Amino acid sequence: MKKRLISIVFTVLLLGTLFVPAASAKERFTDISGHWAEECVLRLAEAEIVHGYPDGSVKPDRAITRGEFASLLTRVAGFSYETTGPWPQRYFYALSAYGVLEGGEECSGDGLITRMELITWTIRAMECKKYSIKDEEILKFPDTGDLSETEIGYLTAATASGLLTGYPDGTVRPGANCTRAEACMIISKYEKAKGFLEEASHPGISAGTGLPQMSVSLEGPETAEAYSPIEIKVHHQNVEKLEWTITGNEDKSQRSKSVWESDLNEDGGTVTFYEAGHYDLHAKAYSCS
């Protein structure tokens, strides 16, 4: 029996007692109550991605700097960095090491980041460079005429994955600065967008093989609490078997059963984690023929 193999990656962010509870973050932050991005900011604070300023403010409507966004992106992507290094160079070093920043790009910590730079860094961090642009996905925004083909590719990937939606007037404003609230909203969609692009980067079998088309999608929460069972649903077609592995974002080494346990099978199941952190659930799918 001839088998085929595809890989699907599903990432769950686990929230444990080591993180700041949302209520504490709400009490700690003095200027977020009633803001349109309040829920998003508090959720990221709970995950220790957003820290705020020493005076207790978040300044959601203030333009975000390259250094501030570098710190957000490094943490949400789970990149390793030198915690004792100078701020924000520690984050620039990490992003350079992971291929997010390329030679010659502006890395001034106090400089304001543009929306185009923000999207470029974020898509690069996802390592989804093989995402193929379909004709119907090419951007129709009226203010992208001066962008390069590479920049159009990054924006297309961002809009197709739901990372970026544009403004009500139909523009995307690639050269404009981004507020801290807008940056938090984009960062909050990171894992879901990455999953979409990773799946899109691994197309099904090519025509002419004579084998049935396989499809697999995983459904589960974006955040959860440690020690609480997490339900993972699987939707698949022409799949005979799924093999599951679990890794942590920090070192990508396979987690031991002392850290997690599950009853996952071809139809999904539950998984329980006993340590807070970022985790990847990998399902290898084998075809029926």
Question: How would you characterize the overall build of this protein?
Answer:
The chain has helices spanning 22-28, 38-46, 66-77, 89-97, 115-125, 149-160, 180-188, 190-200, and strands at residues 5-15, 215-219, 223-225, 230-237, 239-248, 260-262, 268-273, 277-287. It has eight helices and eight strands; from the N terminus they run E-H-H-H-H-H-H-H-H-E-E-E-E-E-E-E. A four-stranded mixed sheet has the order 3-1-8-5, with helices on one face. A four-stranded antiparallel sheet has the order 2-4-7-6, with no helix packed on it. It is of the alpha+beta class and 289 residues long. The longest helix is centred in the N-terminal third of the chain and has 12 residues, at 66-77. Residues 1-23, 202-212 and 249-256 have low confidence and may be disordered. It is globular and about 50 Å long.
Key traits:
289 residues, alpha+beta, four-stranded mixed beta sheet, four-stranded antiparallel beta sheet, 8 helices, 28% helix, 20% strand, globular, disordered N terminus
Unreliable residue runs: 1-23, 202-212, 249-256
H and E order: EHHHHHHHHEEEEEEE
Mean pLDDT: 76
State the helical fraction.
Answer: 25-40%
| Principal-axis shape | globular
CA-CA gap between termini: 6 Å
